[in-house]
Design brief:
Glutaredoxin; Glycosyltransferase; 3 domains; about 10% strand
Length: about 625
């Protein structure tokens, strides 16, 4: 039996390489093999830090008897959901037709044409209550395939058609946020903090929205600020936060934040770093930044995807044990494995957070970490030049995955690069972000979707060949959707460049989610943040520092940048480079007599330059 997983670009797939299951990677060849053998396909989806994925691997996929049955009656494909995000979202949507309890591992049975006709999550090796044994499931699916083939194929075709027709419907932007904030406040757990009951997630995109509203003098700002503050403090004081390493776990299984699900993800911690920085919580932000540096930073300068929930104790894998120990005890035991896979989009979130927090707190080390990750991605994960660029979604140890990059990769990286450009004054990062955004706009214009943005490299080739490609998920769950991430980056680019096409694209994108965001605000935090920005006057502040020195004017620029506007400090040479590269905000911005000089603008209409920090602070306070 060939071993197709031992050189995979995913540690999750590599962990299954020694299974007796005849695994295939996601590929057209796997479906062709199913067609040749006239058998159904098991698409088994998980990720490296998933506890129940490990459990099912040990219980079922390592069982030679069960594996023999699986190999005889199916073609089995193992998928890393973080590597093939479009595959995961497509089959997750299909699986919702069969079970309301979605999660991972996700096991979907499909025809050789890719049509899903049955699905579930974790199945135990022996029946437990209402949960059948995995062998029983396999036998039932085999029976359905051989005895009721037409029914299975008809069901799969109907689901595929429904998925193809699902997309955002254009509506109006949310402009009155009072009802939205009231709805979020009504969902607050007044006893333990956070939103809803168990399981309880950080839902950081929503916290960013509340922080944005709290930074403005608009209606309901005090309520928004208070809700964000209570939630952030509750999480920081809870078992969701690791008191040793400073990072946060993915979620809690209990409403009071106890009994965390112990995997720690790059995307969670990156977003929480930004949120705590925006909330002026220096201690918690420092802990998260140090966690990123000490536990997830790779020698390349990029960041690993996450840390496992399990560690090995006396030869057995145990969830959470490592995290119950103090620092000295942890040093004496094996740490949970790290998923060294480098994801472009999640690294974009880390770049954004480290640049934002580094500028906010004057921490040059954090900005340097953001720069290191950005330089790696621009060198290794960006292929081509200008609007013809193609992104690599993920790599590990120099091995590039052939998985199609998603819109979230382009959008998150573009926003991270823009934030880094603002923090450093280096225009090259803004130019790279502009190239990514223009590539997505060109692809959107050439495509048939409703979004202004598209993928320069196209969607997943296997799904496209099967007619299963759908528009990406538009909701902001644990992190921004691709649509929201790209639209937010486009709006930031507009604030620096003055080119209205970027603002127009951001607005058109948000019209696709306006109605849903108003109805389900907990799932559209990034979109609501952007709509909040689109509905307010754009305030901009450029401080030209002359010889590069920093001071009170620079600090004020950073204050505006975290309170609903754009604030940039740059040397004269840097400002000139921005202007020469087409960024209108920097045109004719000079340091008066070589002294740091501030230009306060609204929608690119600027006041007379100021060199007095007190006068600028008074102007900022009056608006």
């Amino acid at each position: 039996m060939p071993n197709r997983l031992e050189t995979a670009a995913s540690p999750y797939l590599r962990s299954h390489a020694t299974n007796p299951v005849d695994w295939w990677e996601w590929s057209a060849e796997a479906f062709a093999e199913a067609e040749r053998r006239d058998v159904p396909v098991l698409v088994s989806i998980g990720y490296s830090t998933c506890h129940w994925c490990h459990v099912m691997a040990r219980e079922s996929f390592s069982d030679p008897v069960l594996a023999a049955y699986l190999n005889e009656n199916f073609v089995a494909i193992k998928v890393d959901r973080e590597e093939h995000a479009e595959v995961d979202s497509t089959y997750l949507a299909a699986a919702s037709a069969f079970t309301p309890n979605l999660g991972w591992p996700l096991n979907v049975f499909v025809t050789p044409a890719g049509r899903a006709f049955f699905a579930g999550t974790y199945w135990p090796p022996t029946a437990v209550g209402q949960h059948p044994a995995f062998r029983q499931v396999l036998e039932s699916v085999t029976d359905a395939w051989t005895a009721r083939r037409e029914q299975a194929e008809t069901s799969g075709a109907a689901i595929a058609q429904a998925l193809a027709q699902s997309r955002g419907v254009e509506s109006e932007l949310v402009t009155d946020f009072a009802d939205v904030i009231d709805a979020l406040a009504a969902a607050e757990d007044l006893e333990h903090g956070g939103f809803g009951d168990a399981p309880k997630f950080p839902v950081t995109p929503v916290l960013r929205f509340l922080l944005d509203r709290g930074a403005r003098s608009a209606e309901h700002s005090p309520e928004a600020a208070g809700l964000a503050d209570r939630t952030l403090k509750a999480m920081a004081a809870s078992a969701l936060r690791d008191p040793v390493d400073g990072g946060f776990f993915r979620y809690s299984t209990q409403a009071d934040w106890t009994d965390p699900h112990y995997e720690r993800m790059l995307y969670d911690n990156a977003q929480l770093l930004a949120a705590y920085a925006l909330a002026d919580s220096a201690e918690i932000a420092t802990g998260v930044a140090e966690f990123l540096r000490d536990r997830l930073l790779l020698p390349s300068g990029a960041f690993a995807s996450g840390l496992d929930s399990e560690s090995t104790v006396d030869g057995k894998r145990v969830e959470g044990f490592y995290y119950s120990l103090d620092a000295a005890s942890r040093a004496r035991v094996e740490a949970p494995p790290r998923d060294d896979k480098i994801l472009t989009g999640w690294n974009g979130l880390a770049i954004e957070a480290l640049a934002l927090a580094g500028a906010r707190f004057g921490n040059a080390e954090w900005i340097a970490l953001a720069r290191g990750a950005a330089d790696f991605l621009l060198t290794e994960h960006v292929r081509g030049v200008g609007a013809g660029e193609r992104l690599v979604r993920t790599s590990i140890d120099g091995i590039l995955s052939d998985a199609a990059a998603t819109l979230e990769d382009s959008g998150m990286l573009a926003q991270g690069l823009l934030e880094l450009s603002i923090a450093t004054g280096e225009v090259r990062y803004a130019i790279a972000a502009r190239d990514l955004i223009e590539g997505a706009l060109a692809a959107g214009a050439a495509g048939s979707g409703s979004s202004p943005f598209g993928l320069p490299g196209g969607s997943d080739s296997v799904l496209a060949a099967q007619g299963l490609s759908t528009e990406a998920d538009i909701s902001d769950g644990a992190h921004p959707s691709g649509l929201s991430a790209m639209a937010a980056a486009a709006h930031t680019l507009f604030a620096l460049s003055g080119d209205a096409q970027y603002r127009d694209a951001a607005e058109a994108s948000m019209k696709l989610v306006g109605q849903l965001a108003a109805q389900q605000p907990i799932s559209f935090g990034t979109a609501l943040t952007l709509m909040s920005e689109l509905g307010a006057p754009l305030r901009q502040l450029v401080v030209v520092t002359g010889d590069g020195v920093t001071g009170e004017l620079t600090s004020l620029a950073r204050t505006l940048h975290r309170a609903g506007g754009i604030g940039v400090a740059a040397s004269q040479a840097q400002a000139d480079a921005f202007a020469a590269s087409g960024f209108e905000l920097f045109a004719a911005r000079t340091a008066t007599d070589g002294q740091p000089t501030a230009y306060l603008c609204e929608e690119f209409v600027c006041r007379l330059p100021l060199t007095d920090a007190a006068a600028l602070e008074a102007l900022l306070g009056a608006n």
